[in-house]
Every structure is written in C-alpha cells, then in structure tokens.
Amino acid sequence: MARFGRQKQRLAEAANGRSRWTERPLSSPHPFVTVALLVVALFQQSQFLGQIALAKTINGGGQKAVESSSKTTVAGGGFEDDSTVTPPATASAATTDPEIALAKPTTGGSLKEVESSSKPPPSTATQPETITAPATASTATSKNWWEKPQPLLLDWPDLPVRNDIHQYLELLKLKRGAEVGVQKGLLARKTLKTWKSCEEYVLIDLWGNEAGYIEPGPDTNAYKQAHLSNARRILKPYENITHFYVMRSTDAAKKLKKGSFDYVYIDARHDYCAVAEDIEHYWPTLRPGGIMAGHDFVDAQYAIDRLGPVEDWSKCEDGSHQPRAVRGAVEDFAKEHNLNIKTTQEGFPTWLIQKPY
Ligand SMILES: C[S@@+](CC[C@H](N)C(=O)[O-])C[C@H]1O[C@@H](n2cnc3c(N)ncnc32)[C@H](O)[C@@H]1O
Predict the structure, then answer these.
(1) Scanning 58, 96, 141, 234, which has its CA 20 to 30 A from the CA of 85?
(2) Does 10 have pLDDT greater than 60?
(3) Tell me, what DSSP letter sits at residue 184?
(4) What is the atom index within ligand 1 of the atom nearest the CA of 205?
(5) How far apart are CA 205 and CA 179, in angstroms?
C-alpha cells in the first residue's frame, strides 16, 4: 500500500510539471528506469521461454520424423507385424544378411522368395496338410508310365540297343508279337527269353530264294532252309507260343487278324519299296497303342559304307533306285501319318513307332 501511495504522489508531482529525472534523488531510480528495466527483464524472459519452446518443437519434430520414416519402411516392406519393423538403416542391413545374400544367387529366386522361404514354418496344425496335400496329388497324377491305361512309347526310357526293347514288352505285359524276317531265329530267341508274358509269337520268313534279293552267304535254297531248321531248333522251348509262316511277308500279313498284335518287328528286305510295303501290310495287324519296330534305320549309302556293296539296299525289287532305303520308308510313313519315331542308339539302329490309341 505504501508503494502505491508513493507512486500516486510521484504521478501528482509529474502532473504539476516536474520532471521525474531531475526531481528524483540519485539513491532511488527514476520510474522510467524502473519501467525500462522491467521491460528488458520481461523481454529477456520471453526470449528464454521462446528458446525452450523452439527446442521442444525441434526435438518433438525429430522424433516424429523417425517414426514416420519407420512407418514408411513398414509399409514398403509389406510386413504386417510391427514386431518386425526396423529403422531404415537396419532394414537395408537386412539385405546383406549372409543367409539371404547366399540364398539369392543360389536359388536364383527373388528376395521375396528367399524371405518367404526363410519364414518360420506354419503352425503344426496346418503343417501336415501343407505337406500331405501335394504328395497325395502328385501320387495321383504320377503313375508310372507303364501303369497308365494307355502307355506311350514317348515315355519309354532311352534304348541303347534293340535288345533293351524286350524288357518293356514284358513290363507292359504285352501278349502278342510278330517278327517279319527271322532268318536263324537269333533275335526271336532273345526276345522271348525276356518277354515272358508273351502268349503268341508269329515268325514270318520266306526261308528261300527271292528274285532281286541277295543276302550275305550262299544264295541257295538249302542254305535258307538251314536257317529255318536253326530257328525251329533254338526256338523249341517256345514251341507252344510260336507259329512259323514260311512265305513272303506280304502274303503272311493277309492271314493275320487285324488289330490283334501288340508288337511287330520288321526285318525282311531292306530296300525302300519292300520296307514301305511291309509297314503298310502290318500296320493294320497292330491294335491301337501297339508298337511297330524294325531294324536298320539307315540309308543305303550308310549300309554300303559299313557292310560292303553286297548289302546294296538302294535297289527295289522292280529295279527302281531308292537311296533312302529303310530310313526313308519309315520317315515317309511317319510323316504321312503324323507319328513320332523313336530309335535305339546303335550303329544300325532299330526304329519304333506307336499306333495311336
Ligand atoms: C536280316 S534277316 C532277319 C534277321 C532276324 N530278324 C534277326 O535279327 O535275327 C532277313 C530275313 O528276311 C527274309 N526275307 C527277305 N525277303 C523276304 C520276304 N519278301 N518275305 C519274307 N521274308 C523275307 C530273309 O529270308 C532273311 O532270313
């Protein structure tokens, strides 16, 4: 109250025209000085408070920036679980994780694939389903080729030599076969030794001289008859399933039931015309899905180069010249009927064609 009284008095003095600076004694400050000091003090305090406020804003903003940066990483990374959130620096370090860095080039997959494969397995409740479902599905669709209702020749494994064919005739449990051109019966014996499921094997050969056809060895009937005797003898163990047709191949074909054979092997004359004729005659005897095969999938020059001029397969019975020989006849037939040719991998390969189902 005393202070207010003094101020009142000073104001009254001022109102009477007296200067505060001159009239005021030196021991007590002039009111203007007091006010000025107060103003300065207030200004300094407000500056100090402003600095505090500014500092708070900067710190708060910085924190906010880090948070928003983390959020960006989360969204970009596609993670749904915040527990996997990592600040940008750590996130980029994650790509140099040795497991990922190693897995990336090895698998050739994307980083996403590596990440998902390195994820923990699903819960044990879903795990058996995940494992058993594809296994069951693949079992259902991956029957062995020979167990399928309509096995395909295309599915047969590679055949290094023609004797490898027989194991598949047996595996497929085929029943009826024919060999066109039997000679001494050597191939027939090999075939039947392995093909134990065979119930009928028809052996077709002229076993005699034929105009325009020369084989190595004496070109005499006696010699050809000796071949027949040899064939009968070595095939004696199979006499209950073998039938001999001593005649021209084309004549024998007419005696055979159409669509009844699982397997026919063509190995009589080797000129283009005769092979084409034999294929045409025996194709109808095959059942759908049956296999036709034959020896010497080569051309005439190839045979001459290796066997000598006596095996000239370029000449047809009618005198025409067909250098493509066996190979040409088989290729033309396959092309005409849009069929695939499989071959063994020998110097004189066997060819195989499947009759469509
Ligand atoms: C290469 S040999 C057969 C070899 C036999 N496939 C083997 O691998 O043991 C050819 C045979 O075909 C016979 N042949 C040739 N022309 C024939 C024809 N038009 N009809 C029937 N057989 C024929 C011959 O008599 C001869 O025995």
Answers:
(1) 58
(2) no
(3) T
(4) 22
(5) 9
